[in-house]
Design a protein that fits this description.
30% strand, 4 helices, globular
Length: 218
């Protein structure tokens, strides 16, 4: 279960701040962010060596990140890798155009997924449920937290524990390269009575855990 946190501030010099933790099998090899895809000029991201896609990618204007939904970890025979979805989103001229293209796809080609797509002006949450077309919900100003559940869903133990902490923390200041408060939150492996599912940084457990963190500003 990965995590994406967005802060939208329309009219601010840095109107979009994004933070993400990627949770994955520790033996699933990946390459650090770079321009790995010549078919998508200007798109950078970490590359999954197993399927060649990315969990989060940034293009000239758009950033996109994919997450699993509950019970959908890992690949499945006959279905495409969800790693192509952030590449498609990041390569678009705008988040709105990315969402228009992505919601026209057959969601049945992939295992269930969540997808966050944003640019400096607008942001969306997309939900693919394994059939029909992906559904899109625009994310408004303020902080949105996405896990395997819908945005800001208190049914997610992680969201229930950490969303208030992000709302209370000072936001990053890209002008001064100050990300300290959010870096500290992303690195937090503590949890309460709800168990390890509450932890934002999952320590290695049975070959699974948080393998990288990302911070970005537009």
């Amino acid at each position: 279960m990965c995590t994406v946190i967005l802060l939208r501030r329309p009219g601010h010099p840095w109107p979009l701040i994004l933070a993400a933790n990627r949770d994955e099998r520790l033996d699933r090899a990946w390459d650090p962010p770079d321009a790995h895809w010549p078919e998508h000029p200007g798109v950078i991201g970490g590359r999954d060596r197993s399927a060649g896609g990315s969990w989060m990618a940034m293009g000239p204007r758009v950033v996109a990140a994919a997450l699993n939904r509950p019970g959908s970890l890992g690949p499945a025979p006959g279905q495409r890798s969800r790693g192509v979805l952030p590449l498609m989103g990041a390569a678009a001229p705008s988040a709105a155009e990315a969402v228009a293209a992505l919601t026209a796809l057959d969601a049945g080609a992939w295992r269930p997924f969540n997808l966050v797509v944003a640019d400096a002006d607008r942001a969306w949450f997309l939900r693919g449920l394994g059939a029909g077309r992906p559904e899109a919900v625009e994310l408004g100003p303020g902080i949105s937290m996405v896990t395997a559940h819908d945005p800001n869903d208190p049914a997610s133990p992680r969201t229930r524990r950490h969303l208030p902490r992000f709302r209370a923390a000072p936001p990053p200041d890209p002008e001064d390269d100050d990300w300290f408060a959010w870096e500290t939150l992303l690195a937090d492996s503590s949890h309460g009575a709800g168990g390890i599912g509450e932890a934002l940084r999952v320590p290695p457990v049975d070959g699974f855990g948080t393998v990288c963190a990302s911070l970005a500003a537009l």
